[in-house]
Task: structure prediction
Amino acid sequence: MPRNNFNQQSVSCGCSTCEEILEEKKPSWMRKPLIIICISTLLMVTGLYLDFFTGEKSLAEILFLLVVIVAGYSIIKKGIKSVFKLKFNMNFLMTIAAAGAFLIGAGAEGASVLLLFFIAEFLEDYAGERARQSMSSIIKLAPQIATIKKGKQTIEVQVNEVRVDDVVVVKPGDKIPLDGEVLEGYSSVNQAYITGESIPVRKSVGSQVFAGTINEEGYLEIKVTKESEETVISRIIQLVKESQKNKSPIEAFIDKFASYYTPAVIILVVLVAALPSLVFGLSFDEWIYRALTLLVVSCPCALAISTPVSIVSAITSATRNGVLIKGGEYIEGMKNVDVIVFDKTGTLTKGVLEVTDIKSFNNYNKYDVLEIAASLESKSKHPLAKPIIRKAEDEKLELKTVSNFRSITGKGITGIIDDQRFYVGKLDLMNEYGDFVQKYLNKIEDQGRTSVLVGDENDIIGVIGLMDTIRENSSSVLTKLKNQNIKTVMLTGDNKKIAMEVGKNIGIDKCYADLLPEDKVKIIEELSEVQKHVAMVGDGVNDAPALARSNIGIAMGAAGSDMAIETADVALMNDDLSRLNYLIQLSHKTMQVIKQNITISILIKTSFAVLAVLGMVTLWMAVAIGDMGLSLLVILNALRIANKD
Result:
């Protein structure tokens, strides 16, 4: 019973995208409907008292007509409009039922039909508001004012006036106004609404921060990287708004069913009203009344809202848990996934090399080896330099002064430390080495690690092993997927040794290595031919073609990647693979609730329809139980999804 007939106003965060994309109801949006309900109820109760206890029938009928005018005005108006558009909606059916009741002298029940239907509309609008509250709260997170730094002074401006490369100042307890990079300061930032992380994240110089997140303790100066309309929060709101337009197959079926159902009900009601009187000579008023009751009972209100309210609840629940779903079809689709394909780097692994092994030889210990390597690497821009320097910092080692530093193309680097020359690089950079070194190198490489050798002018003094480390929860996530009979596949551009080592450690079903982006697409296509439903999990950048080709593309860590948000059907806003298990559980839960709602709606509607024809259900019972009561039951059942984290 989609209506959306309540008053709305924009909540501005200084971002026109937010103003246009998602509107929040006025705090007093319930005031007018509540006043109408109170006045109509008072008129209704007074009319019933006069009708049953005083014998003032005429005055009672006037009060019932007033109920129709007050509570039924908007319903009748929309019902009449639907006739001119040749779309007979529920408002039209209720208008016919009320008018027919008055014509056969059942004014009390005619008035009750419109009053109870108005209350049903109000309850559904209220429930719809509940289901959308999490998105409204996201909009509220983005402040309207930013404090920007101009020289030694700070000034407050609207966030839509801030430009890229401006520097904003954020004090403890304040909200970060725009996406940016920390230039100065150290703090913990609560970014639960963006990434779903429940624990505040440490931010220091160079860290990325998002609009609407809360600076909890320290002073930060942030260089703006995106204007207000381009922030992650704006894109989330845009995509969630669009997601509600993308209907699931079951939702589309219900919509199509309702378009045929309503005209069929009208024909059936006419037959019930006319045939018993014309063919069998039964009481015309009695069968008109039964037909009107059947009309009210047959309104597919609960059936029509059973799917959309469940989908909205699921989407908002997922958003609150750091999962952005672009449409109901993907919620339904996740339940049917047979195989999930994972990119390796940045998905199953962290995408950052870390030192895993340090082996020392001769008279050096592992700290000597690490200190020498880090001191030399501090002069280098090679990708392997960062993890070695980071490891030395973690061990609190003090880097030594390097002189006569030189980079040897394709081999490594060299320099003098404490009057002695050292080398860091590949094996062919070293002059001599023993068999034991080669054996250790073979061992490291067999484990899928990258080796960096450290030597002096005479011999190799140590070997450092590096590896893109596996995410802590990769293995447990894959185990849970297997328990649900979902096959797992890993695709990577890395060499076969590294791929097989990672796959063995996490328990992947099948690995494909040495792949180009087009190779990944080909494998997805091959899997799609033998599997019914294939989902792909990647970083959304180099995996974009494969994500697009799969039935459902899922991007990891999308909060930091515009491409991920654009490409994927589902975006995990934080680098948390466990959200994948949550997503599958959410899909099963949502489809279970939808099936419950549809089953309950059909059973109760069918039962009441039979009872209506038999004359065992009154008009007010049809509305109060068969329409309003059933709709409320369906709504409450659907809201369980949003309330379940």
